[in-house]
Amino acid sequence: xxxxxxxxxxxxxxxxxxxxxxxxxxxxxxxxxxxxxxxxxxxxxxxxxxxxxxxxxxxxxxxxxxxxxxxxxxxxxxxx
Length: 80
What we know:
About 50% of the residues lie in helices and about 5% in strands. By secondary structure, it is mainly alpha-helical.
């Protein structure tokens, strides 16, 4: 699905690490295999260095069997 870009960090935050541990301490490699990407891509998403495509975001949510907004959050207002 492509390599993570070197763009500025995203404002989207995520709960992937917490969800992995809540789901039997799923490894990054396990999640990567479930959604068809590399472990490095999962690391970049988890660390907020890469925003997944909408399709990949839904695949991640489905891997954890939770709604999309339980995985990803976006701030409601711009920081002043």
